[in-house]
Amino acid sequence: MKNIYLTIIIASISFGANAQQNKGDLIKLDLGIFNGIRVAYEKPIADAFSIGSAADFYYGGYSGFKIEPFARFYIGGQCPEGLYLQGRFLYGNFTSSFFHYNTRNGLDIIDREVSFSSVGGGFDLGYQWLSGRNNNIVIDLSLGAQAMGGYNGSIVQNNQTYNSANVGFNVWGPGAVFNPHLLIGYKF
Q1: Which domains does the chain have, with CATH numbers?
Q2: Which residues pair with 66 in a beta bridge?
Q3: Percent of the chain's residues with pLDDT above 70
Q4: Quick one: pLDDT at residue 164?
Q5: Beta bridge partners of 152
Q6: What is the pTM of this model?
Q7: What share of the chain is helix, strand, coil (3-state, %, to 5)?
Q8: Over 50: is that where the pLDDT of 16 sits?
């Protein structure tokens, strides 16, 4: 049993030392054009792999936050620079206004705030550049796709049930299927 622990400790130290050779941690920022701010942290763990997490903060129609832990594989093994494939897990908590117009008995407008949590996943293809005098300026451009559930519940008012379609959440909101990013950051 002691040999197993000793092997794990030695492997961890050598793995960590290898990952730290001229590789540093990265922190990046994306100011969303329409509805959000993204802060990401990435840690190289091998010649071709890194792990990290992004925190997205949304405002507007779907306010809230989304956490995205990810794993990256750098094609060509030059982590943290070059072409990469990335897989992400998504978890978010959002608040949205629910509007429904009922014209059956005159104009009846329902306006309620609805809070909901959502999970999903995504994949990205991207390229990351290191620039500057010490290769410490980071530019990360990615094109991605994701699937994330929105609020598809209902509201009952005056014995009438109203359903939500959530098109905005899946088109331009936090659950948008097409998910591109341009992040600028610093390697330390």
Answers
A1: 25-187 (2.40.160)
A2: 56, 92
A3: 71
A4: 59
A5: none
A6: 0.77
A7: 15, 60, 25
A8: no
